[in-house]
């Protein structure tokens, strides 16, 4: 229980300032570590109220529960935030209305929105802030550390980043030889804190590779900027080596989703005619937009105009939806 108490104190109070007056609603359910902290030990630790939803977290029923129970803190994941925006924007078009962030709206009772599970695209953050006037505090956590250990702070959000270390946790970024990387360079993220797990059940090899003394090897690639914000570059096994340089699929995905026609995107490596790995983008278009060769080339040019040439997707494949796991994370392994 000390693991939960540590996280409740560091994140629940230190970042979110949860109190007994809060009403918490988490789209992630109790059988996920994220949902367990959101809906169980953090609110229980301060005497807050909790909304539990047994249905799948679809935009319609999430909005229904928000209207009914008026929560003050909402926990979601990037995919859900995008889906809610798409659902409401479709209603706007049907009703020929324009949302006013200064008028009462669906999230008027909410003081803080949180996101975790995967990196929140800046495009979704800005659309959400413009519509509701509420920041989304994006962060990262793992089951091995009980909950979130890096997060943005209210009033100090850096869109696209995972934020800064949560009080009570130490971070370091290392290269393949275990040496700390210079600030600004990508390395594997290791985390130390009192909520760290000691071992996996009956998985000795996994324990040895992940639990490195006091440190947990997250398997995530990150870099730290000059202001102390940490930026996700993707999972170690998702990183692409293109022309001798590392490419972060998250960076390319964020660029692709800023295109006006794109709703979602995922980037993986694929071999070209010379069996060299190049970025390939799988793209879900916004409603009413049809795939075309011209649009494919326009998306490629969009990325090329904003990033280095080797990061440009060599191919763009339009799909109806992206494969996602139970937590809503995009399953890049399926796309590979």
What characterizes the major β-sheet? 7 strands, mixed
Based on helices, strands and strand pairing, what is the structural class?
A: alpha/beta
What's the shape? globular
Mean pLDDT: 93
Which spans have pLDDT < 50 for at least 5 consecutive residues? Answer: none
Task: Say how many strands there are.
Answer: 17
CATH homologous group name of the largest domain: ANL, N-terminal domain
Distance between the termini: 39 Å
Number of domains: 3
Please identify the top-level CATH class of the largest domain: Alpha Beta
Give the name of the CATH architecture of the largest domain.
3-Layer(aba) Sandwich
CATH fold-level label of the largest domain:
Rossmann fold
List the helices and strands in order. HEHEHEHEHEEEEEHEEEEEHEEHEH
Defining key terms:
Luciferase, domain 3; alpha/beta; 336 residues; 29% helix; Rossmann fold; 3 domains; GMP Synthetase, Chain A, domain 3; five-stranded antiparallel β-sheet
Write the SSE topology:
Layout: H1 2-13, E1 23-26, H2 33-46, E2 49-51, H3 59-69, E3 73-76, H4 78-95, E4 112-115, H5 122-132, E5 136-141, E6 148-151, E7 164-165, E8 169-174, E9 187-193, H6 204-210, E10 211-212, E11 215-224, E12 230-235, E13 240-242, E14 245-247, H7 249-257, E15 262-271, E16 277-285, H8 293-304, E17 315-318, H9 332-335
Parallel strand pairs: 1-2, 1-3, 3-4, 4-5, 16-17
Antiparallel strand pairs: 5-6, 6-7, 8-9, 9-11, 10-11, 11-12, 13-14, 15-16
Helix pairs in contact: 1-2
